[in-house]
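quick one, 346 residues, struct below
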Amino acid sequence: MLLNSKGLALVLAASIAVIITGSLLLVPDLPSFVLWLVPIICFGTGYILINVVLEFLFFKELRNIYDMFGKIRNNDLATIKPKRTYGHSSLNQIQQEIYSYAHVKQSEIEELKQMAKFRRQFLADVSHELKTPIFAAQGFVHTLLDGAIDDKSIRMKFLKKAAKNLDGLDALVQDLLTVSHMEAGDITMHMEPTNICEVVDEIFDQLEERAAKKGITLKLESGGQDKILVLADNQRIHQVFVNLVSNAIKYSDENGQVVVTLEPTGKKLDITVKDSGIGIPAEHLNRIFERFYRVDKSRSKAQGGTGLGLSIVKHIVEAHMSEVKVVSHIGEGSSFSFELERYQSQ
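---
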């Protein structure tokens, strides 16, 4: 700024001194010392007072505003902080508006950076997950083409392995589409009265053989009731229980137990899926619902799965206006719980 508080105070104080000196010249018979003492006093006091007032009320705040604009031009929004000021109310308001603008823009920038980071991580994860079954199936097919197809036993063995990897690839793609549609809000939940006891029984029948291979007992605790109606999308809730119960079986030790508890509480139904497995370390609990996140990558890969199950569970439960919670302790198993609205017949 070419004009600062000192320069402006100097001009104004000199002007006041000149005006007062001119006025004194009109007064007859004044001592000569008055004609030079009074202007000096007026100039000195005027300069000090005007400089202090201008600096305190205006120029200090203007410098702060210019400093804020400079940081905005340099995209240095994170360093813009609110300051307690005592200047003119209009300047204070401008400064607060600039800070609010910078704060909003900084939040948007951080969100965009975070989204870009998630996007890069997601692409890397998808590439890795797709690469594994594709390369495996590709290897089996090329081995057959290189001559192994003539051996009937090897041919059938490799074809089955290739088919298994392609089935896994299909499941991964389907889960990716489901997560993408849910995050984009393209899937509408069709709420209808659903007997949750019947859903759990169907899941147990579907996963009974898998549980039996590990000697795991599947148990439903519903207070002796065989019919508890909730408002839910039957197909999606079925998907939630498939993922939660299959995970419970997958990560439970042999001869363990998986328990689904249904407990009515007023207008809600508390649902808990508990296993007696290895448990989840505390540092992983807040990330297990992320896409492709695996607590133990080597063990998860060995036991199969797309790595999207819990992410799908989270989206479906949230679409039912609820929240899935997890409690876990190492060596004591894990417990996943959420609420559904009970159906009230008219």
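Strands lie at 192-195, 217-221, 229-232, 257-265, 268-274, 325-329, 333-341.
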